[in-house]
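forwarding from the other thread:

> can someone predict this with tryptophanyl-5'AMP?

sure thing
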Amino acid sequence: METKKPVILSGITPSNKLMIGHYIGAIRNWVALQNEYECFFMVADLHAITVRQNPAELRRHTLDIAAGYIACGIDPEKCVLFIQSHVPEHTQLTWALTCFTGMGEASKMTQYKDKSQKNSESNNVGIFAYPILMAADILVYQADLVPVGDDQKQHLELTRNLAERFNFHYSPTFTVPEPFIPPTGARIMSLQDPMKKMSKSDENEKATLFLDDSDDAIRSKIKRAVTDSGTDIRFDEKNRPGLSNLMTLYHTATGRTFAEIEKEFIGLGYGEFKEAVGEAMVGLMRPIRERFIELRSDPTMLHDLLAKGAFISHITPCTNILC
Ligand code: TYM
């Protein structure tokens, strides 16, 4: 008899296009794990509407992200790809979990505090409740593992707490999921302000490497990346965050360790290093961009695939939880 594989669930919010932080912090780990797990990867459109969206753009970004998953190496034959809002069980379970979440617990979430301050005029209850929706996304599939970047750690802790609380008050119902946070690249920093996380919504275009950036844009963004005033190439996240961030990009693109990179650039300066990083990133990102453009030219294929994914996701969840 075939043994059941453990389950992975993860997703990305389509509030803009995919960028290199998503790839390094999340998608490349999904690709590495897709053979050993039963995988559910969604486009989290319900999360995107916590901030006011232009509907046409939201639809475009939703398909962009689904195509991006495949372009990055997710195999739709092995993994279930779907749009979150197409599977109503996510919001159904959210309600039950909302009733198990303390007000203080939800108010403590760092992302809630940041987002509500930034958008104080368009602040809404969704921004407050969104980590509970995220918990439901995970628990409804009985996920064992959730591969994410470092910024989602707190949401994963909340998810685990809610699962344990529910299991204690009712009966053992939910799998308590483990986060998978990669040892390197869990927090790729802005190219313009290395103290800040790289973000898809940064107002400064130069701060973010988007997965569909042209070769020239990639080279130019790396060349203009803010670094410190040192001269040698040495990994030191605390004192030289800009340089260390570029070393992490180079490490991802080439597979070389930080020690190997330091050795490679002995006697060379930031100029030569940045040029090498630019070329390595072009080498990594060009095939992804080319495959993305190809996939994106066939929206019918993407819609069909996502409809099939939504159907499988719809029949998988565990929602009969209260009686
Ligand atoms: P989102 O869309 O902000 O980010 C998607 C994934 O990319 C990772 N990430 C990064 N990793 C490294 N460096 C960065 N600069 C960087 N920026 C983003 C994030 O950690 C994340 O893994 N709420 C989630 C989406 C979501 C979800 C879920 C994830 C909804 N439901 C259930 C996992 C499980 C979000 O907005 O991620």
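The mean pLDDT is 94. thats all i got for now
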